[in-house]
From TrEMBL, chain A:
EC number(s) stated in the UniProt entry for this protein: 2.7.13.3
A GO CC term attached to the entry: plasma membrane
Domain called Histidine kinase: residue spans: 218-422
Transmembrane stretches, start-end: 7-30, 136-160
GO molecular function, one term: phosphorelay sensor kinase activity
Pfam families xref list: HATPase_c, HisKA
Name the record gives this protein: histidine kinase
Organism: Hymenobacter crusticola
Reaction(s) this enzyme catalyzes, per UniProt: ATP + protein L-histidine = ADP + protein N-phospho-L-histidine
InterPro entries per UniProt: HATPase_C_sf (IPR036890), HATPase_dom (IPR003594), His_kinase_dom (IPR005467), HisK_dim/P_dom (IPR003661), HisK_dim/P_sf (IPR036097), TCS_sensor_his_kinase (IPR050428)
Keyword Transmembrane set for record: yes
UniProt KW keywords: Kinase, Membrane, Phosphoprotein, Transferase, Transmembrane, Transmembrane helix
UniProtKB/TrEMBL annotation, chain B:
OmpR/PhoB-type domain location: 124-224
Protein name: DNA-binding response regulator
Pfam families named in the record: Response_reg (PF00072), Trans_reg_C (PF00486)
GO cellular component: a single term: protein-DNA complex
Domain called Response regulatory: residue spans: 2-116
GO biological process, one term: regulation of DNA-templated transcription
UniProt DNA-binding region: 124-224
Amino acid sequence: MKLNYRYTIAYAVITFFVLSIGFAIVYAALSRSVTQATIGKLEHLNAVVAAQLKSGRDYTGDPSRANVQISRASFDSTNHGSTAQIRDEWNAALQSEVSTIRLTTYAVVGGQPYRITSKAAVVEPSDVYLTGLVLVFAWTFVFLLALVVILSEVISWYILKPFNNTLRGIQLFQLSQKNTIDLHPSRTAEFNVLNEFLVRMTAQAQSDYQGLKEFSENASHELQTPIASIKAKIELLIDSELTEKQLLLLTGMHDELERLAKINQSLTLLAKLEHYESGPEVRTDLSQLVRTTEAAFADLAEMKGIRTVEQIADDVHVSFDESLAQLLLNNLFSNAIRHNLPGGEIQLQLSATELVLANTGHAPSAPVSELFGRFKKGNASLDSIGIGLAIVKRISELYGHRITYTYEDGWHRIRLAFAPEQT
Amino acid sequence: MKILLVEDHPELAKSIASYLTQEHYICEVAPTFDEAREKLALFTYDCVLLDIMLPDGNGISLLKLLRKDGVESSVIIISAQNALDFKLTGLSEGADDYITKPFPLPELHARIKAIMRRRSVHKNNIITFQDITADLESLECRVNGKLLNLTRKETNLLLYFINNKGRMLTRQAIAAHLWGDYTDNLDSVDFVYQHVKNLRKKITDAGGKDYISTVYGFGYKLNAADS
């Protein structure tokens, strides 16, 4: 949710509550003042009637007596003072139940106390005013809300402009880019602090990234060359006259060197892949590639007596760089053959949504979830480096494909679910 | 055949040069960009072995300069860069081949031979070793005129042996040659044994002598029959 929407919602809720409370206050005040005004009029009426009684003339039938009752009262009741009563009564004049106020006062005329009770119908706010009041408040609310929505768009566009610029700058930023992150200065202190921080952070990250990249490239070069040199020397030495014992020693050295070179190559490759950013959308015809890879490994499979059952759909184009896809398939196929049993089987399935490669083999000694890690081997006895699956995983991740590894009933199954098509 | 080796690591350069000299090439070494440029301006070489990372420059820019100057020599890049780098970035553009360090020396030799053969005007397509002849064009191999029924890998293997006759070939070198990029993560050395065994059997079955000797735990060697 956008920032200004959140502001707007918070403001709307606050406005709603304030208006509701205001409405309650207005309603109560109105209701009270209507009653008070009526009581005031009745007090006046009662005073007039009391004066009439004192004058001693007969006012029966006078219009002032229409809503007044006069009765004799006991002496002690005069101490009560006036009482006002509000209740719903049937009003014959209006032909409906109406809230009626009765005001009782006492007057002493010629030593005789009289009770004077006058009444008047009151139109309570609940009946008529309520709707009007609600409408007034509702319109006020709607008007305020509309104002807030429009103003928040305008104001936040203006105030948050530098912030949005910064956001866009971050989105466009890539670690591998040459120049620093592009952020505009702002008049808002907080945004300037944020920008400064971002510039500092990204510059640091860029220099770290560059350093790491250079290191991995240099490590590759600096290590591979001496290894190549030693290997070349051993090869030269082997062609000279040697005893069998010397030859065996050289063989051992040569094999270890070979292994060292492979580990170094794999690690630098993995480092390269960590920093690799796939270019614009590239697609590879996996149907073709899987077939050729399968053919390339056919003789190796055959020598180990491994049967291959394949089911390859045509025209499966998946987002992959071709050489990376090739590397991934090489690693998967060589694993499937290496960790297979003599006379085992490989099942290969390629559909538009996934690639499944299953092979028979011994149960892995480590939990299968760990096998994607570096130097994790399912079978310690085999002479492999244990980095192939880490490379496979990294390549899959680069393109958003999901790879899973399961072991069940003597079958190792690697499932590569292709990332859904982006349209 | 004259070769210029552009490599800044003195020991590696010495080893490669010594190997290539044994194979009857004339090999000169240039340890820096400038020296290589100078040598290439003054002399003509059939093949240039080019390292990418040089102390005073980049091998790729040297390659571009060469091509701009119209130098016709074949170029093989020898580099510590990964094979993947070449494919992903097109590093080897303009070069005839590339080989990544560390490489077996016989493999380098085989690559040089292949390139030289491709470029030579009057092609001699038949190579001979004792009573074995191999046609590089049709890939037919014969023993005493009798056609051998070899698979592609076996043919490849036989040619590799003949090209490096009298030399010890390690299992790893053979595997790297036979499977190329597919060997990256593969202990295919075990499979080398099978291929060599099949090849020997096919040659002896056709009445040829078994010239291949095994060096236990290490590799194989193609000997002249009488040595």
